[in-house]
Amino acid sequence: MWTKTGFEVFPKKINSMQYFRLLDELNFPNRWHLRRLVGIDGAEFARPPMVAIGDPVRERAYEVELQVDGTAMDYTTTSFRSVPIASFEVVRALSGLDGFTALPASIRAFSQRTSYHILHFWDEVDCVDEDKSQFEKFQPNDPIRPDLAGHYSSFFKLIIDPNRTAGKDIFRLAKSGSEVIVSEEVKRRFEAADVTGAVFKRVTDD
C-alpha cells in the first residue's frame, strides 16, 4: 500500500496463533490425587529457570506421593507446589518442542502401567495483555510477600498478547505463579494422543 509520500507501508504482522492455559482436570471421574514429591520441596520444578545440564537435580530418582488412590491421568499437578506429573504419552506428544524438561519419576504405592515424569516448564514470557485482563498484583507493602511486589498475585480474567510470545509453544507467564501457557499445536497433539487429565482454557482473543 502506497501513501502520499510515495513510501510503501506494510500492515503490521499479527500472530493469529491461539494460546491456552494448561490445567489439571479437577472433575475427572474417580481420579487420583498426587500430594507432593517425596523428600524434596519441588519448588524448582514449579517455576523457571531451566535446571542446568549436569546439575545433580537431574540425576536423582524421584518419587511422587499418592494422596488419593483412583484412576490415573496422563497429566496431573501435585497438591503441593503444583508440580506437573505426566505419563509417557504426554512426553511423547511434546517430543520435538522446546520449553520443558522431562525427569523420570515413580508413583509411590501405585501399580504403574506406564512410566511417569516430572514436567519442568522452564521457559517464561512477559505477554499478559493488561488492558484486556483482570488481575491483582502484590504491593510493595504486602505483609506476606513484599519481595514479589509488581508480580501477579491472581487472575480473574487472563488474556495474553500472542505477538509477544515469539511463536513459542510452551511457557510460563513472567512475574506470575503456576500458569502454564501452551499453543494450539500442543492442544492438537494432546487431543491426537487422547491424553487424559488436561484442560485447555483459551487465553487469546477471538
Describe the structure.
This protein is mainly β and 206 residues long. The chain has one domain (19-50, 57-202). The protein is built from two helices and 13 strands; from the N terminus they run E-E-E-E-E-H-E-E-E-E-E-E-E-H-E. It has helices at 88-93, 184-192, and strands at 19-24, 33-37, 62-68, 75-77, 84-87, 100-107, 116-121, 124-125, 134-137, 152-157, 170-173, 180-183, 198-202. The protein has a six-stranded mixed beta sheet with strand order 2-3-6-7-5-4. Strands 8-11-12-1-13 form a five-stranded mixed beta sheet. A two-stranded antiparallel sheet has the order 9-10. Strand 4 (75-77) and strand 5 (84-87) form a beta hairpin. It is globular. Residues 1-5 have low confidence and may be disordered.
**Could you state the order of secondary-structure elements as H and E?**
EEEEEHEEEEEEEHE
Structural class: mainly beta
Radius of gyration: 19 Å
Q: Number of folding domains?
A: 1
Proportion of residues in helical segments? under 10%
Low-confidence stretches: 1-5
Instruction: Profile the largest sheet.
Output: 6 strands, mixed
Question: Can you give the mean pLDDT?
Answer: 92
Order of the strands making up the biggest sheet: 2-3-6-7-5-4
CA distance, first residue to last residue:
26 Å
Beta strands, count: 13
β-strand percent reads 25-35%
Count the helices. How many?
2
What coarse outline follows from CA principal-axis ratios? globular
